[in-house]
Predict the structure of UDP-N-acetylenolpyruvoylglucosamine reductase.
Amino acid sequence: MSAAVSLSASGAKVERLALSRFTTLGVGGQAEVWTVENHAQLSEAMSAPYRILGGGSNLVIADEGLKERVIRLGGEFAATDLQAAPESTAEHFISGWVGGGVPLPGLLRKLRTLGLSGLEGTVGVPAQVGGAVWMNAGTRFGEMFDGLFALEIATPEGVSQLSPDELPWGYRDSAIPRNHIVTRVRLQLTRSTPEAVSAKMQNADTSRKGQPKMKTPGCAFKNPGGVGAGKLIDDAGLKGTQIGGAMISPDHANFIVNLGGAAASDVHALLELIRQRVGVPLELEYELWP
Ligand SMILES: Cc1cc2nc3c(=O)[nH]c(=O)nc-3n(C[C@H](O)[C@H](O)[C@H](O)COP(=O)(O)OP(=O)(O)OC[C@H]3O[C@@H](n4cnc5c(N)ncnc54)[C@H](O)[C@@H]3O)c2cc1C
């Protein structure tokens, strides 16, 4: 039986849903999910305690679910305008607005087809544009802020547009406060060719060899001071360790994967085991909700 859907005063879709369907780990209990399509709906959604959900690729959400409402970006926040804006030049391409709810992999495919260069380093990051901007996702080949011209950010107080130069962004951090919602961005790219963009993407993608292809929220821990967290976990003999439906990947020890039917509590138990068995303090890479 499908969940009951209601409409808020401004027309946002409101449903009580299991969040497991929105996370790459496939784990997470229920919450009231608000799908917003425009600023009026977003403003109403932000009038009570909320969390903003992107591609769910960096989250472990509790089995008990969440008390706060969860906002998902749809409608105009999931639209992509890749027409050249008047600020563009013969060399540089400035885009129209690209929604924070747009899946990053699909956007990168479009940029490759158009021969637009600048975001190739983010290939393989299974995020939405807003989530990738919020944490300045990327790899050693490049990051989100390499290709940003402007951002639009919504808070309960209102909507503002700013230039990336106005933010003290850094490594995997945009400095945008939590729950300030990246609703749209404009891209700043270099005109190139589909072949050259494709080659750069392939180069960045080869660095992912060995990463597990199963349901996962990505790397569990940050590398502590030059040593790979995966190596430390492997050295502690934990590769392949299973608790409930969750397992430390036999392919790459810094990934916890869902074998099917994993609970958030299984993942928490594995994280705790790793912390106990690895001799050095480890900082979590993904977020635990709540
Ligand atoms: C297989 C795999 C590989 C990965 N590889 C990489 C990698 O190479 N490099 C890398 O950096 N990361 C990587 N990640 C981690 C993850 O993809 C990034 O952290 C990504 O930025 C998360 O974006 P998301 O849209 O999925 O956000 P979510 O996981 O949904 O949310 C993460 C955080 O972003 C916030 N957020 C989401 N959307 C918005 C928005 N519109 N405005 C403001 N805040 C928002 C959420 O509130 C939350 O705090 C990987 C993950 C997986 C599963």
